[in-house]
Amino acid sequence: MGRSLRFTIFLGILLVLTSVAPSAGADEECGGDFSARLKCWSSELDDGSVTVTLDRALLLDGSKTQRADLIEDIEGKSDKLNVQVPADVSTGEGGTVLLLLAEQRGRLVDQSAKIDRLAQGTRKELDSLCGSTRKDLCALVGPGKSQVSGDKLITEDEVTEQHAYVVGRIGDQGDGRTRWLLPAVATVLVLLLGAFLLLVRRTRTPAPATAGQTSRSADADEPTRALRAGPARPARSGGRHRARDRGGPTRSAVVRTDLHPQGYVELDRVLYRAVWAEPGQAPPAPGSPVDVTDAQSALTDADVLHAFPPAAGRPAR
Fold first, then answer.
1. Distances (CA, A) of 29 to 43, 94, 121, 316
2. Which residues contact 124 (CB under 8 A, 6 or more apart)?
3. Residues near 114 by Cβ (< 8 Å), separated by ≥ 6?
4. Does residue 52 contact residue 83 with C-beta atoms inside 8 Å?
5. Nearest-CA neighbor of 257 among 286, 223, 280?
6. Is the pTM of this model over 0.70?
7. Cβ proximity of 294 and 305 under 8 Å
8. Contact 80, 48 (CB under 8 A)
């Protein structure tokens, strides 16, 4: 793998890790069970307002004793707490408790939201919270069989209707469907770029090979020898023979790779590119003798020799 390809992949991985880092940090900031979340939010409320958007049901778990102390603490800061329940989201028992902790103007609920009722034990645990200002709301979401709709609470004027939608939460941030979007896109782009660079490397025209690097070995009676790669075509010399209808002087050579249509032939212990110039006849196999001549066609690269069947009576080299 080339140095440029390795660098590109490394850069892409670094981009992905950088993109993921903020989301992971946000989860850890106010994650854990319900008691741990309450503790985090209580601390954040000391510094300013906190908005929690429920994108899923929130369980009422964690230490019951610790939870009671934290509920009492947050109740004293409830004017800075905002709880949002988007459309079609169920609050879970923990989300319902959080909704009770906020004041009426801080409870932003969609009409189609689903408010889970409190269990009998939970309702008793919240006797102190369900005082005069929350008495009616506690009654509406108290023990019962079915969930309470957001529309019901809006009608009873216990919550404020939510007209806008948010992506993620502040305090307990991150919509699970969106926070991985950027890392996923970055990963796909890196993989595509890496595949493209690898494809470019594999499709480059290979440099002229020596006989020891040819794709096929010569026949048993024509062993391949380590040769040097020479110029594109041989220099003219006085030892050439004139061939009929071949456009110029020819010399005998040995096929070293398949001529489909171009390959390499050995001439004076040097490899040259050659093209099979006899369309009515199959190209010879590696190790076979051929006659070669300089290219005379405008359609052929001038550096490529033309290869023909050897002239009758000419001995193989």
1. 11, 18, 29, 83
2. none
3. 88, 89, 90, 91, 147, 148, 149, 150
4. yes
5. 286
6. no
7. yes
8. yes
Listed residue (286, 285, 290) closest to 243, CA to CA: 290
pLDDT digits (tens, 9 = 90+) for 68-117: 899 999 989 999 999 999 999 999 999 999 999 999 999 999 999 999 99
